[in-house]
């Protein structure tokens, strides 16, 4: 009976451990790209303005108004290929790590993220003149920024 109990405990520990890393196994990192297997999208590991140096994101994050974003998208599409875009609110909220200290993101996957608001492609449901942002300092989204406000940007593309 002791051996069976031991095997049962081992099985439970293995099962629990493998499930506890389910959120981590959702992402595959490939140099400057993060593949999100759950959402079937690819993220740039670095914010706009930064460069992947092989180990982390280096350089200064460039805050952009929404009028400046199309130019950044053109540059990303030309240099990296694909059709990069701003993430939706749901997509950007999906990489918020509530258990993490500020910035509220897994910094092993997305290093040197600013603990500040980032643009999404979604307009505010309260006022169509404003757009939604996700704040990686608090982990919350807000519907209050005018498109002329300059915020950080992280790009995504469909797989």
Can you tag this structure with a few keywords?
globular; alpha+beta; 159 residues; 3-stranded antiparallel beta sheet; 4-stranded antiparallel beta sheet; disordered N terminus; 3 helices; 23% strand; 9 strands
Instruction: Give the strand order of the largest sheet, numbering strands 1, 2, ... along the chain.
Output: 1-2-3-9
What shape does the CA trace take?
A: globular
Helix content: 10-25%
Q: Quote the average pLDDT.
A: 87
**What is the radius of gyration computed over CA atoms, rounded to a whole number of angstroms?**
19 Å
H/E series, N to C? Answer: HEEEEEHHEEEE
Amino-to-carboxy terminus distance? 51 Å
**Which stretches of 5+ consecutive residues score pLDDT under 50?**
1-22
Percent of residues in β-strands: 15-25%
């Amino acid at each position: 009976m002791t051996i069976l109990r031991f095997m049962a405990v081992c099985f439970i520990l293995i099962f629990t451990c493998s499930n506890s890393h389910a959120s981590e196994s959702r992402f595959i990192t490939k140099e400057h790209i993060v593949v999100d297997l759950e959402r079937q999208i690819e993220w740039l590991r670095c914010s706009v303005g930064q460069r992947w140096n092989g180990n982390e994101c280096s350089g200064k994050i460039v805050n952009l108004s929404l009028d400046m974003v199309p130019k950044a998208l053109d540059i990303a599409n030309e240099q990296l290929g694909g059709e990069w875009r701003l993430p939706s609110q749901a997509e950007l909220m999906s990489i918020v790590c509530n258990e993490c200290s500020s910035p509220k993101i897994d910094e092993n996957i997305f290093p040197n993220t600013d603990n500040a608001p980032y643009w999404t492609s979604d307009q505010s449901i309260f006022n169509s003149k404003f757009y939604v942002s996700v704040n990686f300092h608090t982990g919350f989204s807000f519907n209050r920024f005018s498109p002329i406000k300059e915020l950080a940007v992280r790009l995504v593309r469909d797989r």
